[in-house]
Specification:
GO terms for molecular function: 2 iron, 2 sulfur cluster binding; metal ion binding. By secondary structure, the protein is of the alpha+beta class. Helices cover about 25% and strands about 30% of the residues. The structure holds FE2/S2 (inorganic) cluster.
Length: about 150
């Protein structure tokens, strides 16, 4: 006897289509779940803790102009001013010079100019110079012994 209507191992085209549909849904769902869960993990792994500021101590007395040219910064500590700015040009990174007679910071490479506060005056540089925090160290009598620049 041969029963042609019962085919236990063969799937009908409708059953195969349903199986394909469910398999695709499962694949897409797995991909979506992996994205949802992996994205925060990858963000966490890629997270960087900002480095601690480098502290540079400049002992007093400063020159009469009140300007000190460090390796990476200018410190201006006059009677009416206390500031520090980067010594790296924001155009292409040349080391800047302070023109004491003109009271400007000038780049020797392409002549960008900045104020002692780091504001751009002219030249190809488009950004102001980064400013740094400065703290004052005093002795027990209130006399300034050093300036600390937070790079
Ligand atoms: S690098 Fe300073 S102006 Fe170009």
């Amino acid at each position: 006897m041969h029963d042609s209507t019962v085919r236990p191992n063969k799937k009908t085209p409708q059953q195969q289509s349903r199986r394909t549909f469910l398999t695709r849904w499962l694949q897409w769902g797995t991909a979506l779940a992996a994205t949802v869960f992996l994205y925060p993990l990858l963000r966490f792994v890629g997270h960087r803790i900002p480095p601690k500021p480098r502290l540079v101590e400049v002992p007093t007395p400063l020159p009469l102009s009140g300007a000190h040219a460090g390796q990476d910064f200018f410190l201006f500590a006059g009677t009416d001013r206390l500031s520090a700015v980067s010594r790296v040009c924001t155009h292409l990174g040349c080391r800047l010079n302070f023109q004491e007679d003109k009271q400007i910071i000038e780049c020797p490479c392409h002549q960008s100019r900045f104020t002692p506060d780091g504001m751009r005056i002219s030249g190809p540089a488009q950004k102001n110079l980064p400013q740094y925090e400065v703290t004052v160290k005093e002795d027990g009598e209130g006399k300034v012994t050093a300036y600390v620049v937070h790079l």
